Structures are given as C-alpha cells and as structure tokens.
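Writing this down once: the sequence line spells out the residues, with the fold written below as integer tokens. This is how one looks:
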Amino acid sequence: MIGGRLNQIIDQVSKEKSIDRSVLEDALSQSILSAAKKTFGAERELEANYNRETGEIELMMYLLVVPDEEVVSYQREIPMSKALLIEPDVQMDEELGFQIFYMEEHRDRALEEDRKYGDILNLRTARQQFGRIAAMTAKQVIMQRVRDAERDIVFNEYKDRKGELVTGITRRFERGNVIVDLGRAEAVLPVREQMQRESYRAGDRVQAYVKDIKRESRGPQIVLSRTDTRLIEKLFELEVPEIYEGIVKIMAVAREPGERAKIAVASKDSDVDPVGACVGMKGSRVQAVVQELRGEKIDIVPWSPDVAKFVCNAIQPADVSRVLIDEDNQTIELIVPDDQLSLAIGRRGQNVRLASQLVGWRIDIHSEGKIESMKTVLGDALQVVEGMDESLVSYMFKLGYHSPENLLNAHAEDLATIPGITGDMAMEIQQIAYEVKQKREEEMRRAKEEEARAQAAAEALASAVESAEVAAVVAGAETAESLALLKNAQRTRTDDNGTTSETAEAAADEAPIDDALLEGVDLGDAAVSEGAA
C-alpha cells in the first residue's frame, strides 16, 4: 500500500469521504515519521514528506557535521573526516541528508545505501523491520483519519443546526435513551427529554428539537428533545406561514409536556389576527401541531404589553373580576367569581401554573366569596384602630388592601399616603394584619390536624372492622370443626350389643345441629354446649 498505489487510495478516500487530500497526506507523513523515530531512535533527526509525483512518503535523516574530536552522538552527528568522503565540499556545522529506503520495491537501493553508508547510518537491522511497520502504520492512520474526518464533517454540519427541528428514524434503544438515525449522523433522545406518554419502536419516525451538540472523543453527540418549549415554536413556525415570515411572533410559551401548553402570540400587522393565524381554517394548523405532540392540548392567547390584560388572557377560559399587581414582589392577585375558581385553577392547579409561567409572575387566585369573608374579618379587626371608620376601611379595600397579605406587603409609607391614615395608624394597621394572619394560619393548622385525626380514626375503624370480620370467619370455622368432632364421637360410642347407645339422641339432635351450623357462629357455639351437656 505504500508504493505507487498510495496516490490512488488517497484520491479514492478523499472523494468518498469528502476529506481534503492534503489532510490525508500530512497525516500519513506524520505517521511514518512517528514510526521511524520509534524504530530508528528518537534522537535521530528525521523528516518525512509525501511526494505526489511518485506517490511515496520520502523519509530523510540528517547528520550534523562536527570536528572528529567533538562527536557526542553518532545518531545525530558525523565526523568531518567521514563527511568529506561523502561530500567533498561539505562545511563545518552543515547537515548531510540521507534518504532512508524502507519499501520492498526499494530493496536494491537500500542494500546499496547500507553498502556505502552502513557504518555511518547504522540502520541495517532496524530497516528490515521498518518496512512492515510503515505499511501497518499507514493503513491505521488512513482509517483513523477517515473516522476523525467523518466526525468533523458531522460536527461541522450540525453545529450550526442547534435550535432547529430535525426528523429521523428510531434505530435502537440504550438504557432508555432512543437512538435516532438522521441520515449522516445518529442522535440521542435522552429519557429526560422524552414525553411520558410516548413510546417508541424501531422504525418509528421521530421529529424533535436539536437541544445541544457535544464534541466527544467517540464523535459528536447530537442531543434531541421532545419536551423543550422551543419545540412548539418550531412546529408552529413549520405550520404557520405568518410566523415563518415574521408577521406573527410567539412571545412566550409555557408547557407541561404531553398534557397541556399555552402560547402567547402577537402580530406586527394590525390586519392579521395572531390567534386566528395560528389556529388556521377549522383549526387545521393547531391540530397539526397537536397531532405531532401526541394529543397535547394547546391554548393560544393574545399577548399584551399590559400585564393586567395579558394575565387575564393567560388565565383563560376563566373570567376575572379584578386584577391586583404587586410589582415589587412580581406577584399578581386575581379575584374571580365563585363559580370560576375551579376553572381558573385548573385540574391539579395546571391552568394557573401554566399562566404563571407564561406571564413570568407569581399568580394568586381568590374567589369573590373568600375575599368578602376576608374583608369582614379584617374590617372588624381594624375597627379598634383609633380614627378608623367603615368608610375609611371600605376605601382602603377599594385600593386593593383587602387581605392581611396585601397590608403586610405594602410599605407603611404607602399606607400613610391614603387620606385619613397617619404613619402611626399605618404601623398599627400592619400589626393588626399580622395578628389576623397568624390567627388564620393557626386555625388552618388546627383544621388540618383535626382532619388528620379524623382520617386516622377512620383508618383505625376500617382496620378494626376488617379484623372483626376475619375473627368471625375464623370462629365460624372453629365451630363447624367442633360440631363435626361431636358427631363423630357420638357415632363411635357403642353398647354391648354392638349398637349405638345414643342413637336415638343422635337422631333427634342431628337436624338441630345442622340448622345451627347454617345459622352461624353463636348458634353453633350453643349447639356445641348443648351436645356436650
């Protein structure tokens, strides 16, 4: 392989694997140089270069010309007297170069070199082994370089595709991870990036989001995701031309993969309805995305720069009566009608949780009935503050200070700006609010404890009933066994004539005993006692 065929091999590999020819040539030269240093000695001054005309890697060794008495290493230096025999015009401190012939087809030239300069080069023994080593090394280097080049090509191809949508085929499974064939590369869909309700089989089509590309020794690792929120953005971009063209923009996405998602959209063109564009004719566009996400429900709401309006859109389909915004704590309090509370919260709190993610603020939801109850309790407590009357309390409630939390989160200076409330009153109001809050929390704690005790009592009662039922069954079994033993004893008692002495009694008692068995445990016990008597 090191002979004239090397040019053809390099050309073929370069074309098939899309690897630059110079990369292969440099790799081969370096591999031959490394093998030569290991074979001939690391101290020698060696140089390897690829000759495109001959298709060979030429190996050169150089010796420094020094005075005869100053020779330190014959592997790197040559005495002046011997150098003059080889090159009459040589000067001191110049280098003499010798080409090392190591290939099989150059055997004659290698023998001629050993005959002339064998005592100077000292390569006779090592040269015989180096030909085979060079051939093996060249083959390994080409294979390794091809693998490295393929990895580089894949990495360079996909490094700029991070954040894109790709489609592949499921090939195999490794510790729960799905290996996806993307054509020229394989990607991994980790367990943590898979939706819980999805299952995969070999040969299934997989469309996923390219979350990350890592460069590793075994090759680039392309990490896919089916749970990333940006997957929804890319799917809508694929289905909605207005999003792809930039007319409609997805402003925020909140998602619980496999269950439900909310997206907020806005339009740069006032004539284009962003929600309608995403929904499509008869819901065709959004249904295509839902189908790709295996039935994940998607709520599309209009985005608004007004936080109050945006949160009302985000909490849909529930209606909101009032919105209170605490910018300092990034908290929004929503007051909803009593019949809308469960709808606003959603199943297991899903609706309000997604709305909170979408808006980026914490959301507290209260029903109107609960707010009225809190107003009543707080209003009665605030009556003890000197200077407070019903009209002032009512005005304070209208400003949004209708709960202990609202009053405690506010600054005393802000409360003091309310007409009729002084700084001292503000501090006293907050103290009362703290006491009301503590009392309410204590009542809630006691209610939870009472509920826990009631639940424990119910569990204990259920356990006792179960134990009693088991005991009754066991007692019934013991009674039946006792009656059977009694009958057997009566049958075995015989008189001197060989007849049963209590045959008449047994015959008379036989029916009642059977009835007793049918009646249950208590009658059975009674029957046993009577028979024994």
The domain at 162-225 is CATH 2.40.50.140 (OB fold (Dihydrolipoamide Acetyltransferase, E2P)). The two ends are 112 Å apart (CA to CA).
